[in-house]
Amino acid sequence: MTVETDPAATVLGAAAYVDPARYEAERLAVFAREWTAVGTASQVAAPGSYLSVLVAGFPLVVVNDGGTLRAFPNVCRHRSGPLVDEASGTCGRFVCRYHGWAYALDGTLTSARDFGAEVDPADFSLTAASVATWRGLLFVAVDPAVPDLGEWLGPVARHSTAFPMEEFEVTTRSSHELAANWKVYAENYQEGYHIPLVHPGLHRQIDSTRYEVEIDGRATVHRAPTRDGAVTNGAWLWRFPGLALNLYPSGMCLESYWPTGPTSTRVEYTFCFAPGTPVAEAEASVASSVAILDEDRTICEAVQRNLGSGLARPGVLSPRHEAGVALVQALVTDALGGA
Predict the structure, then answer these.
(1) DSSP annotation of 233
(2) Domains in the chain, please, with CATH?
(3) In whole angstroms, what is the distance from residue 181 CA to residue 171 CA?
(4) For the chain: N or C, fewer Cβ within 10 A?
(5) What is the CA radius of gyration of the chain?
(6) What is the pLDDT of residues 89-126, one digit of tens each?
């Protein structure tokens, strides 16, 4: 499908960033129908191990069922109690924390506590969600009919072949909350126009006047030469709606984000490094990424306040710098059927 990305034709109004009804529509039309990276396959490598996540308001649980990964809503079929309370752990079956209905790890109802023959287990199995792994990363989707993960990744997979991702070891995970609509953050990620003003440290390292964002389908590839003219040997990749992957020969940063409300966003970081990477080097890399995020948080939250003030008016996007912003807006609009 071809999506219009002309910056002059794609500027969302302020209501798109504050309206609760719009948030609900995007949850269903965007985040329920796309893959979301939620961590690494190592988190559910052992039989019986599980990972519970809340993605854009959708409670999901991923479990290793004897070597087969499965995903379900973390919602009991009886009266919607939680199957697991902890973010991660190990179990032999799911037992609802509300009334004790029990399910095998393949989702089959095995016990409806204190019910008799009036409950047919076949009618109350858990509904499957989608789960898949790619090069050690773990993805989930609410929609059981989501496209194949490799096909969905497309350009991200192609541009990452040179990096030994499977050899990298997880060193740090961190979660961050932003008081801004997820599109404000996504659009901020898609341009280097703001770097000289918002990221002085990064601006000293790269030539932001030559920052490029190449659109490749529903993904973008970011490039910027260093100040000394050297071309970075990394890859900065993004895929709609909320996957960002920064790759280097010595490590990577997986960034995944999703909305937690009409005007709030959660950002999850997973940092991985090659074995033998000096601790100081890894810590410096993590600190730099988090500092840049904090700078983005400040400006995104200021933009969000202005969007909610009633004073924001339609703007204009730069064809040179903001084609990636136009892509975000066009893909969201397309997902909502052009609304």
Answers:
(1) S
(2) 7-34+154-335 (3.90.380.10), 36-145 (2.102.10.10)
(3) 29
(4) N
(5) 21
(6) 999 999 999 999 999 999 999 999 999 778 888 899 99
